[in-house]
Amino acid sequence: MAALLVATLLAVLAVGLNSCSTVPRQVIIPAEIPGANYVGNQACLSCHTNYVRQFPASPHARMHFIPNAKVGASGCEACHGPGSLHIASGGGRGKFILNPGKDATSCLNCHIETHAEFSLPQHHPVLEGKMSCVQCHDPHGADIMKPAGGLAMARLNQSCAQCHRDQAKPFVFEHEAMREGCTVCHSPHGSINSKMLTERDNNLCLKCHAQTQGSLIGAGQIMIGDEDHTDKLKLGGCWSAGCHTAVHGSNFNPKHLY
Questions:
Q1: Lowest mean pLDDT among 1-5, 94-98, 179-183
Q2: pTM (predicted TM-score)
Q3: Who's near 52: CB < 8 A, 6+ residues apart?
Q4: Rounded distance between C-alpha atoms, residue 44 and residue 41, angstroms
Q5: What is the CA radius of gyration of the chain?
Q6: β-strand 17-18 against 122-123: which pairing, if any?
Q7: What is the pLDDT of residue 21?
């Protein structure tokens, strides 16, 4: 029985033991290219110099992948697949190599929780092939959240600003939540709520705009700031009721009414 257990563990380790920052100690079946063998990161260096040089600083470099100890570190091939045929064919885009920028399968093999989020009713269309993970994340660099670009917003918003320009542009009266980032209100991969919101109703706004019930107001009366919202909250959400419609910011009204 013990011998069978040891044999099973060795077989699992031969498949590849990955320790990624988001999925610690999880066994993952590595990317495959039919007929190709692993060649190691150094074989990628001559053509993909910048990627190979910056990769050790990437969070993905923490993933330990040992398909063949003879070829050395094979972190590149954990996501792109074994590279022998790619090199033999002279390289080139899509030649015997996997590109996570075109197909998110390599990413989702490890980021299983994210894969599930993309299956929720409201989600970014990654599984449909209309977007890719690399549009928002840099898999090779030290900062996986892609700090470059944007529209003069806080760094956390810059990736979103590439597509959601109207929501991320500067406003005279900005919504303070934008300073903390879009993910304060939105689940970036997927949500059961409309517009990928983390909450579906007034609870989202009241996390910051806390309701107060002091001793000088009537029982059941709800004050937000210095204004009575008892009846207004019955109309619907803070924005869906037609009140604070300029939810991302306004150039005209400090209370984001329009």
A1: 1-5
A2: 0.76
A3: 41, 42, 44, 45, 76
A4: 5
A5: 24
A6: unpaired
A7: 45
> What is the number of alpha carbons within 13 Å of residue 86 lying toward its C-beta?
25
Separation between Cα atoms, residue 234 and residue 243, nearest integer Å: 12
Distance CA 68, CA 72 (A): 7
Phi, psi of 212 (to 5 degrees): -125, 140
146 and 137 Cβ atoms separated by less than 8 Å: yes
DSSP state of 125: S
Amino acid identity of residue 151, one-letter, is L
Q: Which two tokens stand for residue 32?
A: 């495959």
> Mind listing the pLDDT tens digit for each residue in 1-41?
555 444 444 444 434 444 444 445 555 667 789 999 888 88
DSSP 199-224: SSSHHHHHTTS-EE--TTS-TT--EE
- C-alpha separations of 87 from 14, 56, 80, 102, 144 in Å: 24, 22, 13, 20, 27
Residue 55 in tokens: 């990769």
The residue extents of the domains of the chain are: 11-113, 164-250
Kindly indicate the confidence band of residue 119, based on its pLDDT and cuts at 50, 70 and 90. very high
Residues of the chain above pLDDT 70, percent: 76
Three-class SS of residue 228? strand
Question: Residue 172 above 90 pLDDT?
Answer: yes
Burial of 82 (0-12, 13-18, 19+ CB in 10 A): buried
